[in-house]
Amino acid sequence: MTKKQRALVVIERLKEEYPDAACTLDYRDAWQLLVSVRLAAQCTDARVDLTTPLLYERFPTVAALAEAPVEEIEEIVHPCGFYRAKARDISACMKILHTQYNDRVPDTMEALLALPGVGRKSANLILGDVYGQPAIVVDTHCIRLTNLIGLVDDEKDPVKVEMALRKIIPPEEGNNLCHRFVLHGRAVCVARRPNCTGCCLKDVCKFGSKQI
């Protein structure tokens, strides 16, 4: 089975297992997703979702957050860890959105990567979830599962994983597949204790097939 054939099987199996693929971060507008994904670095989505309502209650718009004292942002996002760097990036990012983009999140990879604190993972999430563009969101779940399954070969670099997956995954499937990797990684293929016997991919997974 080629990697492309394996990828198509994985896509269909995970669609059946997790029909409702969606971002696990709560947000209403694109700029809020941008804030949430920055806060989610080395922090759980659950913690971020507990924190952002407090942030948006005090600063409900891009303009309000752009004008907010960084110290006040720090105070609110403190539970998410690395709060000084995150607050600084959020403040700088909102200022750019307000002054250069009329409070709108840009819709190109190049423009998104130019924003403070935005890397390819965040940019792909915005492009896929907000703008419906082909996207591969490479997080820790994606890297771990694609290596175990055999879609990539012992590759841990996020950019190299993204580029390898773009070659074998249909463009319209990439974004939702990555969301399903997160769900599967949390529910079944858990780090250090994967439930291979209960996995819908065990017969096509390089790691799982050895455990049967």
Description of the structure:
- This protein is mainly alpha-helical.
- The protein folds into 2 domains: 3-22 and 136-211, Endonuclease Iii, domain 2; 30-130, Hypothetical protein, domain 2 (Endonuclease III, domain 1), CATH 1.10.340.
- 59% of the residues lie in helices and 0% in strands.
- The chain contains 12 helices and no strands.
- It has helices at residues 3-17, 30-39, 45-58, 62-67, 70-77, 83-100, 109-113, 120-130, 140-149, 158-168, 174-187, 208-211.
- The protein is elongated and about 55 Å long.
- The chain starts with a helix and ends with a helix.
- The mean pLDDT is 95.
Summarize this, please?
This protein has 212 residues and is mainly α. It has twelve helices and no strands.
What does the secondary structure layout of this molecule look like, with pairings?
Elements: H1 3-17, H2 30-39, H3 45-58, H4 62-67, H5 70-77, H6 83-100, H7 109-113, H8 120-130, H9 140-149, H10 158-168, H11 174-187, H12 208-211
Number of helices: 12
Which regions are unreliable across 5 or more consecutive residues at pLDDT < 50? Answer: none
Query: What is the total number of structural domains?
Result: 2
Judged by helices, strands and strand pairing, the structural class is: mainly alpha
Descriptive key words:
single chain; 212 residues; mainly alpha; Endonuclease Iii, domain 2; Endonuclease III, domain 1; 59% helix; 0% strand; elongated
